[in-house]
């Protein structure tokens, strides 16, 4: 393949598209008589006696069945309708007949005005029916005559009757004025800036919004045409085809076909033939068929320029009016990019540089044609900051717009890489989309890159965001402030991007898409048989977007794109088991716990792309995706819940618009607070009563135990008195035999000691200091007898801080003297000291004194008293040479 052929194959990237010219979306059992829209733009289908809700897809939902043949019907809101049958009418509320009445004449027309239904008759003028009060009144302004049609406009209400056209105030329904049109008008339609009147014998009349008629008229294609208006557009059908009515009352044939009813719904046109409902796309149309377009430039809202092979064609309102031929010496020169201003036409070409023509088609300049292969292959021309930016095959340069002289060439940026697109931001800042090196961002001499290893086919800017279309990885949004990229679409080979005020249009290799700003809704725009797209064949004016193909130009109306996101999303009252819950009911019994939630996105443009996300807060906070329109929950436990559901037109949408239903399932009475409080109170009373009884039993038991313990202690103390007395008298007897004076002194000491013991008779626990002093006093009595044969060493620091069982030390000293042989060879050494939490009484052993009278009462008595009073045991260490007793101390 030669260089030119390779370049053309690189530059021209085509895709196939599906035809959306006549799509039958529904076939009903009975013939369709009428199509209705309610206040939420939900569509309903009326047959001979039934009204069905239509969501955009099958199946239909039956809303009402009449016992009469329905003549006229209006949809007020979901489940609320008014139907007429001859001179009678029926009001249906929540799918139930709630009011039936009749007028004195045949009803000929019906229209909704706020909470009032206007009913025209065949001879008795106009009546009103108040939906709230159910009162029927005659309208004095039109109280006679045959009412042909009623039009509720933005400012006024139009009444077409056999006496002309009357304009009423919307608030008071009083006469505002009469139109000066004298012809008999059978139908009225609202156009963009006027009202269209359909007269007898197939004439159309253009009437100003104030009712003034200036004589503009036109014959209809067929005298029995039917019309439907959609904002600025009016469409009409004849028995053979359907048409679009222009502002000058001329008809443009859209497509042929046999239809008997028509309804415009935002961006969709519904046509009825018998029992078949067809859907037509009115968002886009083929603007100029048959032209091969490599580049486009919209000069204004009516003039469009198309760059083709070897020529430039000027189209006015879609019709070619001028052709400018390239005087090139080369063959197969394609106009790859266009710029048009008030004076000149500037055309970039593949292989032959840049041409400049005046508006008359005269060539003024031809530049860059003698440059290298790379530089004379022009990819794109753009204007920004009083500069002309020229993107060529592997570089970028800027030209002075006055003389097209080169100001700067950025050829060093790409090297051997190729360029697909350039986006100037300012004089010193621009983005370049490359064929495999991602995006290069040039900012005041500094170069950075984004999306490395991607091929970037297109770049477009809106505010602080840049959108980049890639070859294989969809679309990325780049924030200029942070220079970071986020993927917003996965559609492959995005060749052209058009940012709008709300949303963006993506032209891909197999479809065109519209995405709203929140990215909740993505709409595939149906193809119309065009193919072969160029990466620069896109332009726009204030009203439309134009996409160029090898076999025509696709025109997309911007105002209709914004309507794509304006869809109604409804969450019905849930079903409790199989019955719909009552209005405002949100509280249920514990066994009312199985719910079905029904929801619907009314997408009449592309309903097969509906997706839903739902969750039940109180069970799970995770969003789940479903294509179904019904979710059921079985046997929910008691608690607070909120069912949430959101809708979008692709599976990855963010749930921003959320419909919710909050409800509570009450606990059973045995789990209710009052029951729990009452039962808890009773239980507490029982527990309290049980505790009181147990406490009384324990107190009585403790009292008996204490009494028994006290008796035991008293008994033990009573044992100590004779024991002490017996031992003391034995010692005193021995002293008397040896030394009368010492015996006398000993008797006095014994008297003092016994007096001290009597004071402690009722005391069980005494301070360690008092007990040591008592032991010391007792020791002095025996020292009178043994003199230096016995020794006592007391080392007890701070004895006032501890307590002990009374007479402990005295008993152990007594025990040591009694059980040891004491003489010059066998002296007795007794030590009293503290060790951890014990008082230690230690004495040496000098052989057993079996001569002493002993019943072993003292030590046993001491052990038992410690057990009773301190719940602790004394420790006895009996070795060959020493006898040690450790007594537990008590704090305080």
How would you explain this protein's 3D organization?
The relative contact order is 0.06. With 892 residues, this protein is of the alpha+beta class. Strands 11, 12, 13, 14, 15, 16, 17 and 18 form an eight-stranded antiparallel β-sheet that branches. Mean pLDDT is 87; it is low at 1-10 and 12-21. The chain is 16% helix and 46% strand. It is elongated. The protein is built from seven helices and 75 strands. Among the domains are: 24-227, Methylamine Dehydrogenase, Chain H; 228-282, Thrombin, subunit H, CATH 2.40.10; 568-671, Sandwich (Immunoglobulin-like); 676-891, Heat Shock Protein 90.
Task: Quickly list its features.
892 residues, Methylamine Dehydrogenase, Chain H, Thrombin, subunit H, Immunoglobulin-like
**Spans with pLDDT under 50 lasting ≥5 residues?**
1-10, 12-21
| Largest beta-sheet details | 8 strands, antiparallel
Q: Indicate the proportion of strand residues.
A: over 45%
Tally of strands: 75
Number of helices: 7
Radius of gyration: 54 Å
By secondary-structure content and strand pairing, the structural class works out as alpha+beta
Mean of residue pLDDT?
87
CATH class of the domain at 676-891: Alpha Beta
Proportion of residues in helical segments:
10-25%
Distance between the termini: 111 Å
* CATH architecture descriptor of the domain at 676-891: 2-Layer Sandwich
Find the CATH topology of the domain at 676-891. Heat Shock Protein 90
Tell me the name of the CATH homologous superfamily of the domain at 676-891: Histidine kinase-like ATPase, C-terminal domain
Q: What overall form do the CA principal axes indicate?
A: elongated
